[in-house]
Amino acid sequence: MAVQDESRHIEAELYDRLSKVIDPELGRSITDLGMIAAITSCPVEGGGAFDVTIDVELTVKGCPLSQTITNQINGAVRSYPDAELHPHIELSTMSSDKLSTLVAELKAERRQNPFTKPGTKTRIFAIASGKGGVGKSSVTANLAATFAALGYDTAAIDADIYGFSLPRLFGVHTQPTNLNGMLMPVTAWGVKMISIGMFAGSERAILWRGPRLQRSLEQFLADVWWGSPDVLLLDLAPGTGDMAISVAQALPNAELVVVTTPQPSASEVAVRSGLVALQVPMTVRGVVENMSYYDHEGERLSIFGEGGGERVSEQLTDALGVPVPLLAQLPLQTDIREIGESGRPAVLNDLGALDSTPLAGEFKALAGRLLQR
Questions:
Q1: Keywords assigned by UniProt (predicted)?
Q2: Is 132 annotated as belonging to a binding site?
Q3: Fewest Cβ atoms closer than 10 Å to its Cβ: which of 63, 125, 146, 334?
């Protein structure tokens, strides 16, 4: 094969190989997204090697994941089996016209709320509680991290507009990337997430009600590029207010998970959050009892009493006429607070893998039960 022909062959083969490189934010091939502007192959003097220059157009200037994309491209080039290739990656940014066209195509493909389309594969779990202080957000964060560590494409929406806490629990201090009006969720510990707490001015008190509150959820669903996650978790505000009703209306395929603690004062209120299903079309998937016990020097202490989760399960089963199982009884552990406050879900080790602790085992079992039909 002539050198010029071989160069063209290499360029064509590399374009095909780069079609397997996926943009980590958009979840689409970098060739499909038009990010590969040019590939040029030139022979190196004195040998059979080739210098390969790849012009990559990023969607935004200073893309935070540009190094990830570059590493994947380098890997695809260096692993080319038929010749020795020396990659040279040149990064630039898409023109505003090209980016506008791309975003328009993506929005047309998605069309509003992507989670209610026929055939959607996403399982949606809305994590609710009757009152604050039962560890609902902690359960949401650790459950999301568990799903991600198990290999599921996982997304989370902090739907607790008044008391958002997922950014802190995941150590997120950045804002979503804005692609001409379409937001990229922030990814932390393998979980794609969005929260009002990621935006400037979020430290102010929020007094949204009714339509404006519902619109915030609609924007989180429709104006964010989620791709096609396997699992979506929503951290709801405590109680049975506007957001719970909005979730039921926007996501009729969502499954409610009620979090309670053992004492009667919590379990009695938790039942009310599950009874929302009598007013709106929402399945109650089950009950999680948090802070169930504390292990101390070989003795299991019931600090907050016993039986709350079972009471909620039994009452909801009777009221709804369908089984509402007690899915898990989670321990009271200081690790959940100490590690969680540091910005890492307690079920993960410092490398981001699922830890080998009993707590991680409990959440792994909970994740498995939730995915059972």
A1: ATP-binding, Hydrolase, Iron, Iron-sulfur, Metal-binding, Nucleotide-binding
A2: yes
A3: 334
Q: Which of 203, 205, 234 is nearest to 221 (CA)?
A: 234
Q: Is residue 137 marked as binding?
A: yes
Is 131 annotated as ligand-binding? yes
81-94 pLDDT, tens digit per residue, is 888 888 899 999 88
Please check if 163 is assigned to a binding site.
no
Rounded CA separation 313/289 (Å): 10
117 annotated binding-site participant: no
* Residue 269 annotated as binding site: no
135 is in an annotated binding site: yes
- pTM across the whole model: 0.76
- The answer to whether the beta carbons of residues 42 and 51 sit under 8 Å apart is yes
Q: What's the CA gap between 82 and 354, in Å, rounded? A: 39
Exposure on the CB side of residue 307, measured as CA atoms within 13 A: 6
Count CB neighbours of 61 within 10 A: 10
Q: How confident is the model over 336-347, as pLDDT tens digits? A: 777 877 889 999
At 288, the pLDDT band (50, 70, 90 cuts) reads very high
- Taking residue 297's Cβ as centre, other Cβ atoms within 10 Å add up to 5
Q: Exposed/middle/buried for 107, CB within 10 Å: 0-12, 13-18, 19+?
A: middle
Check whether 151 is labelled as a binding-site residue: no
Asked whether the beta carbons of 206 and 161 are under 8 A apart, the reply is yes
